[in-house]
Specification:
Elements: E1 2-6, H1 10-23, E2 28-32, H2 35-42, E3 49-52, H3 61-72, H4 76-84, H5 97-105
Parallel strand pairs: 1-2, 1-3
Length: 116
């Protein structure tokens, strides 16, 4: 599974990346400190999962989502893919963030209480 982690706190990003990688060796996690860098890396091909911090320097997480939707409008296949993979879950950065992210990545978010 190709995962983009967009988080401006590099220490926190490395913590999340390491914890997720330890939980599943099939995760290929790329980290970015800004939405702009992630957008460049996407280059027309969306990752399987995007974990996006809401408050980022420059373009916010919501701005990134909107930008991807607008750029996807020219490509019908990408639009369908994006809608199928659209924003579905919201995870709070707290002491259970790794368990919450793991539940989402494994498709078990309905079985896991994501909000405290």
């Amino acid at each position: 599974m190709n995962i983009f982690l967009i988080e401006d706190d590099e220490i926190y990003a490395q913590f999340v990346k390491k914890a997720l990688a330890n939980s599943n060796p099939d995760y290929k996690i790329s980290t970015f400190t800004s939405a702009e860098d992630a957008l460049k890396a996407i280059n027309g091909k969306l990752p399987d999962v995007m974990i996006v911090d809401y408050k980022l320097p420059g373009m916010s997480g919501i701005d990134l989502y909107e930008n991807l939707m607008l750029s996807a409008l020219d490509d019908g296949n990408m639009v369908l893919s994006f809608i199928q993979r659209g924003v579905r879950d919201y995870v709070i950065k707290d002491e259970s963030v790794i368990e919450s992210l793991g539940a989402v990545l494994e498709g078990k978010e309905d079985d896991y209480y994501l909000f405290n």
